[in-house]
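User: Please predict the structure of the protein below. I'd like the answer in structure-token form so I can feed it into my own downstream comparison script.

Assistant: Understood. Taking the following sequence of 353 residues as input:
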Amino acid sequence: MANFFENISVNPKDVQDLKELIPLTINQDEDFNKYTTLKKVKNGDPVAFIGDMDDVGVEGGGCDPVYQEVGIVNSQKRWELGSWNIPIKICYEALNGTIAEYTLKTGTEIGDLTSTEFMTYIIRPALERQMMRMIWRFGWFGNKDAKHITDGGVLTDDVKKELFTTCDGLFKRIFTQCAANAKQLTAIAANAKATFAEQKAAMLVQGVATGIVDTMLMDTDSRVTADSGSMIMMTKYMADALHWDVKKTYHEQMEWTTIFDGFDVAKYDGVNIARISIWDRFISAYENSGTKLNLPYRMVFGNVKQFMVGTDQDALISDLDVWFERKERRNYIYAQGKMGTSLLEDDMFHAAY
């Protein structure tokens, strides 16, 4: 049985109102919708593309020209949505002996938590935060074939695989595309080091971080660099290394601006950069061997419209179904939905890792 507030005991001198609790420092998560394009779709819906016509115009002229057939580049993908669900049950006995006991009803209804301060001020806000992190986890780090490190994968051994297997996330699709087309990848040698200390030391060498970003910008498809909506999204590990290197190499400061909570941006050589610290937290929590991290230095350069997330409803987060079951005297919370990802155009981004 989960024991809520096990470290805050009941005592007349202690806090007795949940609204008086001071929340621990909770990392501010970036707005998921600012880094992806959300689509309402059904499983199997098509994503169709049309591109340029074949080259035309050849040497020659005069009478009786040789007519040639031409084609137009086109392709089609289909959405693959996986299902997720959140089933939670809570017994009021888990609150006994804690400050939350003051919020319980009395008598026969003591077990019903649905309209208590505990549900309103503690459970719902905490669950909503975790649901948003779930969307980040599926959307960027999802992998239907997730494997633990001991099995040849990248997932930390004590982490549940079902936290990731709903759908393939955008990083997996990016890795797959870069494996198929090496021109879309700039390698970061520091990631291959044996320990995180060595990864960090290799990155914090003067000229390394700026050199990687410069190479990435030079090697990126001109259509991406010409798109005014393109930006480089990077882990905080990478952003910190770049900030350090700019200061050491060019004796300048990268000025980061918070344009809304959790969204920090800067410019490098005229290109917008977004620092996405939730990626770092996931890598540290879920792709950590205990010795090294999996690709802590990673970047993706492109327009966010290229990185699509699909769901079968109007919003990513489903409404919570909360009820009290009188027979079992337990409280239940349930939510479910479907989610998938897709790259709009496979060749319209550049990555570094």
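That's the full token string. Confidence is low (pLDDT under 50) at residues 7-16, 18-28.
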